[in-house]
Amino acid sequence: MIEVSAPSNIALIKYMGKVDSSSNTPTNSSLSYALENFRTTVTVEKNTSPIDEWRPLIGNQFHRIELSSKGKEKFLSHFNLMKKALGLDGFYKISSANNFPSDAGLASSASSFAALTRAAYALKKSMDVSFEISDEGLSTLSRQGSGSSCRSFFSPWAIWDEESAREIKLPIQKLNHHVFIFESGVKKVSSSEAHSRVVQSPLFKTDSNGRSRVERAEKRMSELLASFQEHHWTKSYEICWEEFWDMHELFHTSTPAFTYLTEEVKQTLKKMQSRWKKEGCGPIITLDAGANIHALFRHEDKDLLQSWQAEFEPRIQLGSKVH
Ligand code: PMV
């Protein structure tokens, strides 16, 4: 039996909007930080029945994944693509699970598809040790299953531009990631749906300064890379703050418009911003297509992490709020 795992990643410059949805070609470059502690494990073994099947992977160390029939179809169709790309024959039982709560509203498609891609490759290698594909090659294959998964092959930083995804060396290597979970459960608007709706937002074409979404994202990308190189942490925080709001404004102005932000999340973001202003330090803050607030703290800011947790951790239990 093959068993592999892959990390999720959080984008600071977002992939939102596709030029071509069949190949998941993004409209702009994106930059992500690998979430090594948020992982999906995939196992693959021969099936005696002539079909590929998916089941949740069970184990004390895992949180069970429930895939909808559409989710299963998408996962197995990516496995089929991998079988063709790698020349794998036969039929297989595939199982997967996350080491983080699957009902926490945290995007797990990046880690799931990266782990599935790696599992298919490990299976091929177990049959033919001389078979080689680079991480860049695997990332390009994985991207066809889920765009954001192509960045999960590089750690800690990955950049994905018109060429491909690859590792990018930045001076800050280790950040402490914490996610403030406000919403659990399945998202009302999937990220695939969000990708197709945002291009209809007027802000996608132009904002009040005459800049398109692509121009804004690319400008922030070069400014963010420069701010990391120069160890200008406050600037990095400001760029990431503008970037996640830009993506959420696209959601709020698309047709039909939608939002992931609850009143509680908006209030918390305001308080976080005031604290940053008052103290002149804090974490990089970003939101994905969801209501959870991701915070990246510098290694030296350990005490800050504790005090931010004490101040902002929502009193939520997965599945039900305990106000
Ligand atoms: O890979 P997808 O299609 O689930 O897209 C995810 C896009 C965001 O998570 C919202 C942003 C990103 O760059 O990861």
What's this entry about, in short?
The chain contains nine helices and 14 strands. With 323 residues, it is α+β, with helices and mostly antiparallel strands.
What would you say this structure looks like, in words?
This protein has helices at 69-86, 109-127, 135-143, 191-198, 202-205, 213-229, 233-252, 263-279, 302-312; strands at residues 2-13, 18-20, 25-26, 30-46, 53-56, 63-64, 92-98, 157-160, 165-167, 175-180, 284-287, 293-298, 316-317, 320-321. Helix 1 runs parallel beside helix 2 (109-127), helix 2 (109-127) crosses helix 3 (135-143) and helix 6 (213-229) packs antiparallel against helix 7 (233-252). The strands form four sheets. Strands 1, 4, 5, 6, 7, 8 and 9 form a seven-stranded mixed sheet that branches. The longest helix is centred in the C-terminal third of the chain and has 20 residues, at 233-252. It is built from nine helices and 14 strands. It is globular, with a radius of gyration of 20 Å. 38% of the residues are buried. The protein is 38% helix and 23% strand. A hairpin with a 5-residue loop joins strand 11 and strand 12 (293-298). With 323 residues, it is of the alpha+beta class. Bound molecules: (3R)-3-hydroxy-3-methyl-5-(phosphonooxy)pentanoic acid. (3R)-3-hydroxy-3-methyl-5-(phosphonooxy)pentanoic acid is lined by residues 11, 14-16, 30, 107, 109, 146-148, 191-192, 195, 288-289.
List the helices and strands and how they pair.
Blueprint: E1 2-13, E2 18-20, E3 25-26, E4 30-46, E5 53-56, E6 63-64, H1 69-86, E7 92-98, H2 109-127, H3 135-143, E8 157-160, E9 165-167, E10 175-180, H4 191-198, H5 202-205, H6 213-229, H7 233-252, H8 263-279, E11 284-287, E12 293-298, H9 302-312, E13 316-317, E14 320-321
Parallel strand pairs: 5-7
Antiparallel strand pairs: 1-4, 2-3, 4-7, 4-8, 6-7, 8-9, 10-12, 11-12, 13-14
Bound molecules: (3R)-3-hydroxy-3-methyl-5-(phosphonooxy)pentanoic acid.
The site of (3R)-3-hydroxy-3-methyl-5-(phosphonooxy)pentanoic acid has 15 residues, from helix 4.
